[in-house]
């Protein structure tokens, strides 16, 4: 029986200076970096290869940079004969999944995520919104906490349901700080503030979502050739109109990552290939279900290892 494979893509926070560099000896791979520079009219590739890290981490640079590296590595995997049965990405990573599934072409996608970063950056005053990871509290209990704090202190809501015992909350600085205090009182093991520039995946991103909706309405999306498991629904989607609507909702809705992984496992996926810098998603997948295989691919060495592993 054929092994079912999912290609999964990391989001912001995974970017590092030098990512993807080991692939650039290959002419076709190098064209992704050149295409990103040309599409955006900035030296994104120089920033990716030389830094500084603080500049690369700015949301409107990190988003196109991660999409570029993930799309480049995907092309190498497909050239090696490895193809996905499903794709999914965490937040920004969903756009890399959409390129793989032929919903968006790469130059269009790199432009959209650059603008998405700009919209997110200006949606809420810098320093007034934030996020935090809450460890060891069930989502139902944590949602009670965020609802209470929203009523008394400031907007805060569940933003990323990553894996059992790890949920990220997002909202106003006051709301998130108070929710961290209350969550620990209710039994959370830890509350860890995250170094982010805004309250992503919360209602405070509504204005960014309206700007994104206008941008997407002028872009040409195709039906997915490979089903994409949506952050918003945790279901495999193929219809271009539905996907476009979900991308707008994604900005202010929680990322249902744990449910998305479980959905892919229910659909028969036994191998998850994480494509892009780092191994964060591979770690989350293992916490969701230890029985599946994870193969992070982030440089030529890990690429060759994955090809070898899948040839067995």
From TrEMBL:
Origin: domain of life: Bacteria
Listed EC numbers: 2.3.1.39
Keyword Ion transport: no
Domain Malonyl-CoA:ACP transacylase (MAT) per the UniProt entry, residue ranges: 8-297
UniProtKB keywords: Acyltransferase, Transferase
Catalyses which reaction(s): holo-[ACP] + malonyl-CoA = malonyl-[ACP] + CoA
Record carries keyword Acyltransferase: yes
Gene Ontology molecular function: [acyl-carrier-protein] S-malonyltransferase activity
NCBIfam families xref list: fabD
Family, as annotated: Belongs to the fabD family.
Protein known as: Malonyl CoA-acyl carrier protein transacylase
């Amino acid at each position: 029986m054929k092994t079912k494979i999912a290609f999964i893509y990391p989001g912001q926070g995974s970017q590092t200076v030098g990512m993807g560099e080991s692939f650039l000896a290959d002419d076709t791979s190098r064209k992704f970096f050149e295409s990103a520079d040309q599409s955006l009219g900035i030296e994104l590739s120089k920033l990716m290869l030389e830094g500084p890290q603080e500049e690369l981490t700015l949301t409107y640079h990190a988003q196109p940079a991660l999409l570029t590296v993930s799309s480049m590595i995907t092309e190498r995997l497909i050239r090696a004969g490895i193809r996905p049965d499903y794709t999914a990405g965490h937040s920004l990573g969903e756009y890399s999944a959409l390129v793989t599934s032929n919903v968006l072409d790469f130059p269009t996608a790199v432009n959209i995520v650059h603008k998405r970063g700009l919209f997110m950056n200006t949606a809420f005053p810098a320093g007034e919104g934030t996020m935090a990871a809450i460890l060891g509290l069930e989502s139902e209990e944590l949602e009670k906490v965020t609802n209470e704090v929203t009523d008394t202190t400031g907007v805060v809501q569940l933003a990323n349901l990553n894996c059992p015992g790890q949920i990220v909350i997002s909202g106003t600085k006051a709301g998130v700080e108070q929710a961290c205090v209350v969550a620990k009182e209710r039994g959370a093991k830890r509350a860890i503030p995250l170094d982010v520039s805004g309250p992503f995946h919360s209602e405070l991103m509504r204005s960014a979502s309206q700007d994104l909706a206008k941008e997407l309405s002028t872009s040409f999306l195709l039906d997915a050739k490979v089903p994409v498991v949506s952050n918003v629904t945790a279901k495999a989607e193929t219809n271009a109109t539905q996907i476009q609507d979900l991308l707008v909702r994604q900005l202010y809705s929680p990322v249902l990552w744990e449910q998305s992984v479980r959905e892919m496992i229910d659909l028969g996926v036994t191998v998850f290939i994480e494509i892009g810098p780092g191994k964060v998603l591979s770690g989350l997948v293992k916490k969701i279900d230890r029985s599946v295989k994870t193969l992070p691919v982030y440089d030529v060495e890990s690429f060759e290892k994955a090809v070898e592993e899948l040839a067995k």
